[in-house]
Structures are given as C-alpha cells and as structure tokens.
Amino acid sequence: MNTSGAPPDGKSVEHLDRAVIFLGPPGAGKGTQAKELAKHYGVPHLSTGDMLRENIAKGTPLGIKAEPVMKRGELVPDSLVLKMVAQRIEEPDCTHGFVFDGFPRTVAQAQYLTILLRQHGYKPALVVHFVIDPKLLLRRITGRRMCKVGGEIYNIYERPPKCDLRCDHDGGELEQRPDDREEIVGPRLQAYERQTEPLVAYYRRLGRLHEVNAAKSVDEVKRQVLDIVRGAR
C-alpha cells in the first residue's frame, strides 16, 4: 500500500508513509508545524475536530450520533472518534501518510491507533513532543493580540505592532482573546500536563517519542521537525 515511487522525470520524491503525531501544550506552535509538515509531504493534516464537523455537515451516521453530544458540550466518546479516524485513514489521500492534530488524547486512543496503523501497513507512528518552559509559554500566549479587522496576530512581547494596539496593515484595533488571559491559560496548561503526561510516557516506552525545542523560531522548529522525520526508522 505505502510504496514510494518517482515521477516521470526520474527525480526522487519524499514520501512520509506513516502517521506523525504532534504533542504539546496550547500555544507551543504544534498546529502551525503540523500544517507545514503536511504541506511539505503533500499529505492530509487531520484534525479530529474538523472531521467531526464534516461528518455532522454531511449527515453521516457518525455525524448524526456525534452532533447531540457536541451540542451538549460533552466529549465525543472514544468509540465514535476511533471509528471516524479508522474510516478517514482509508481514504486515497492518506496512502502516503498523514499528520494528526489533536489526536490521540489518551493512552487508550494511542493503543488503538498503534494497532490500526499496523493493520493498514503503515510504518510505526512518529511522535514529536513540543517542549517549552511554562513561563515562556504563558508569556507567549498572554501576549497575543489579534486585529479586529483582518485577524492579523501580534505579540506585545515578541512581535509588537509599530503603533500601540493598532494593526500595521489596516489600522484595526488589536484585542486579547478571552481565552488568552492568564487566569484562563494557567489552569488550561496545568490540565494539559496532567492529561498528556501518560501519553508522553507511553510513546517514550515505545521508543517513538522525539522532542523539539518549541521556544525556537518557527523556521528553526520546522527544521528540527524535518530532521526528525527524515532520520526516523
């Protein structure tokens, strides 16, 4: 299934041929890097949230079951999420691999995914863990400001606008999103650490965990990620 090939001109092509999983706290940059890696290899960037919304919009049997759960603000049960993931990776665009965003979230999901990938003939999943000092992360998140007009993102500490609280491009007012406030972010980061610690330990035991320094620039983190993927067995 996951055979690599070459285009008519004879040039070699990089194939991913596996699942890549990004683990890291909110604001660490894993979403940005997941999209970059998927684009680099020409494979799907799979977000379970997007998949759920798509199933609901299409009125699929999975979507019909998930919609009332999501409307109540509850977590969609593993049975539905795992079935949805299993169906998605059977699509033709996943032949040469895919990049997960927001999955797996628990050890039980990770164990199921390990079996699923083996059944479909993929290489073992590669897990990239974004490591960053909590104080720096808090500063990065609470410093974010977004333009009300064009949505441009700034950081008052690391990438401030030229004019105080005004967008450089359209002059729109910059605002802080409610969930970027310290009183909200702090507990979220603590909850993430509690939830993810067993998952990190699981993939470390399997020898699939690779860590990157998420405090570096976007380009430097991208280079770290590509080095890990290219050097993986």
Describe the structure.
The protein is α/β, with parallel strands linked by helices. The protein folds into two domains: about 30-125, 3-Layer(aba) Sandwich (Rossmann fold); about 135-210, P-loop containing nucleotide triphosphate hydrolases (Rossmann fold, 3-Layer(aba) Sandwich). About 45% of the residues lie in helices and about 15% in strands. The protein has eight helices and eight strands; from the N terminus they run E-H-E-H-H-H-E-H-E-H-E-E-E-H-E-H. Strands 2-3-1-4-8 form a five-stranded parallel sheet, with helices on both faces. Strands 6-5-7 form a three-stranded antiparallel sheet. Mean pLDDT is about 90; it is low at about 1-10.
Question: Reading side by side through the largest sheet, how are the strands ordered?
Answer: 2-3-1-4-8
Which radius of gyration do the C-alpha atoms yield? Answer: 19 Å
Structural class: alpha/beta
Give the mean pLDDT.
Answer: 89
CATH superfamily of the largest domain: P-loop containing nucleotide triphosphate hydrolases
Shape: globular
Taking pLDDT < 50 over at least 5 consecutive residues as the criterion, the unreliable ranges are 1-12
Distance between the termini: 18 Å
Number of helices: 8
Strand percent estimate: 15-25%
Estimate the helix proportion, in percent.
40-55%
Q: Could you say what the CATH architecture of the largest domain is?
A: 3-Layer(aba) Sandwich
Number of strands: 8
- Please trace the helix and strand order, writing H or E for each element: EHEHHHEHEHEEEHEH
Number of domains: 2
Overall CATH class of the largest domain: Alpha Beta
Q: What name does the CATH topology of the largest domain carry?
A: Rossmann fold
